[in-house]
């Protein structure tokens, strides 16, 4: 017989990127962040901006606060509101369940009041116009009017899986119109350095394209090499 679990298991947030580290990701495209991590870190493409009309901020960078819920439940997300700090991204796991909303306008409004910069979830949300009214950006898997429960069990502040990635409290979350990326806390400085290199490479490539480049030089060299066989 399985022992009845506690309604909530909570690890109080103890680590957080510095203000300087957080600022280093401000307005950095998610594609730059992924490139700086050599292709890693992106959440599943099903997790996308809730609103595409420009009525909510299109870019967010902030520390994760995790809330892991079972299917159709939001108890951990509600409990996480008590531990949010200004600028946190509330990462609300829904176990990928699509049968009801993982958050709505009331939860978004409370998260905004608690200082959240955004909500990211692997479930759908509801009350689109109400969420837009709060001004809180969100990334989710879609919309549904169906309501969740809040019975638990759930986990707050602990590592969890969401969108194919491991996310822990204190990791950096960067989100924009392309999707969501997680930067592990231990790699933040490394990735910041990598972003500088990616930015320089992108600027150089932009200049070449603006100058008329149509085919990358290495592709031209490849096409002229013995590594390519031409057939009639």
Automatic annotation (TrEMBL):
Essential cofactor(s): Mg(2+); a divalent metal cation
Gene Ontology MF, one: metal ion binding
Binding of Mg(2+), residues: 127
Keyword annotations: Magnesium, Metal-binding
InterPro entries: RraA/RraA-like, RraA/RraA-like_sf
One Pfam family, short name: RraA-like
Source domain of life: Bacteria
Residues the record lists as binding substrate: 104-107, 126
Stored PANTHER family: 4-HYDROXY-4-METHYL-2-OXOGLUTARATE ALDOLASE 3-RELATED
Annotated protein name in UniProt: Putative 4-hydroxy-4-methyl-2-oxoglutarate aldolase
Source species: Meinhardsimonia xiamenensis
